[in-house]
Amino acid sequence: WFFVTVFSKQLYLGHASKIALTADPTSVTVGITKILVMRCSLQNVPARNDTVQQGWAEPFRATVNSISITRDSSTTIASISSQHPAVASADVDTLRVRGDLTPSVDSSYLQLTWTKPGLNQTGMYTCRINATGHSGQDVLYKSHIHIYHKRPDSKDIIQYIHELEDALSQTQRAVKECERSSNAEIRDVRISLNNSQSDLQRQVDISNAQ
Asked: Facing residues of 143 across strands?
């Protein structure tokens, strides 16, 4: 904790920010899990409830300099900093990365989205946020989350089959709609062609009559 003076009034400021590292889902079933989303951010929270009620506390003010997420403490998966935008350093074939660093601490974030995650995406993930406090001190926030490998059970398989059946039904409906549209277009072309032929025949008849 530390004290600063603002407008000649002493405000009680603390490291009242916490790191939030979340994942949805927290386990991967190979071949069944479609998307894995992980997000890391910094959240401002009051330093202490009693000091907030007395008007002596406010959120910890900081500037976020960088956010990075690593897997198994060795592989950097993605990062964002004041020097470069959000970028993936691994899993580039299946990973989309979004992020932003803003003056508002709780608006800065790094988000990772994997499509069809597999065994390579399981393991221990660590998010590190480097920030500079209001008085110039460096602050490091760190949090961990584990992504587990889940073997498919009968419920997973049944749900997956239902999803495949729904996808097949949607595809069949789309094909039928395309066929109806194509048939309608072919019919319109034939009508237009017949009308053109009739107009041409009338012109020929008029020319012969003259």
From this structure: 127
